[in-house]
Amino acid sequence: MPAILGTGEHRYRVVDNFAKLPDGWQLTDVASVAVDSKDRVYVFNRGAHPMVVLDRDGNFLRSFGEGLFSRAHGLHIDADDNLYCTDDGDHTVRKCTTDGKVLLTIGIPKKPAPFMSGEPFHRCTHTALSPKGEIYVSDGYGNARVHKFTPDGKLIKSWGEPGTDPGQFNIVHNIATDSDGWVYVADRENHRVQVFDGEGKYETQWNNLHRPCALCCCGGAGSPTFVIGELGPGLDINRNVPNLGPRLSIVDAQGKRIARLGSEDGPGVASGKFLAPHGLALDSRGDIYVGEVGVTNWKASFPDQEMPAAVRATRCLQKLERVRE
Asked: Known Gene3D superfamilies for this protein (predicted)?
């Protein structure tokens, strides 16, 4: 029987072996995932075919991005089905059509800004849009900033610096917005999500999280909910400590936990377990798609175990089907 995660109204059935790829293809790490208006699933991955497109049943439709993307990291899709692809390997954000035509590039490919300079970009991580279509970019590994751009890619402002105080970041890893214009930032190694207004003014923070990595806003105007993908322990000393993830948490607009999905007993490849949730998306039916960087994370979680072939092939993409009973 498929594993069931969650409780009450937030119960999800794990769809095992979801992705059906052409023979010989591998996703490797799935850095991020997005769903368009027709429930087609865009899988931004670090394999030979960076953008793999599936239908909602996991059937292969097409791929693109070969030779274009250096290292997949973040993916956002707007109301017009434009894809915002964040590549931390060449320090760019590319706006693309659903068949891979590049409409806009922000950043200079393979030209990072100086480390912790605050200038865009040094290993940028993700994007989100304001209600007016302005582009927020989290930046990232070599910076501790959020940048705000006009819809055509002109820099408006930036905020943030390294540290642990409000408005400071320790790996600004993901970003989301809601219909009211609030900006939510996954401050991964500070174990929190920070909330700002659209101009970067600090509002509050959500705690009781463990290395929040993926962040997805869903729900209607005025009452959004959020799904947060949390990484498990990253240190040898706490590798086997329970209740630290990897897992998904569902919270309300105040950051109050509504539900939690796995993994009380740590990472794994069995049905109902996670490896390293890195990207999230929901479709029109409320089903959750989880991109995981299980290949990159394997040695941190399982230093003495050989990685199963399935992890590199398709296991880094999971579908959780909402139970309606």
From this structure: TolB, C-terminal domain (2.120.10.30)
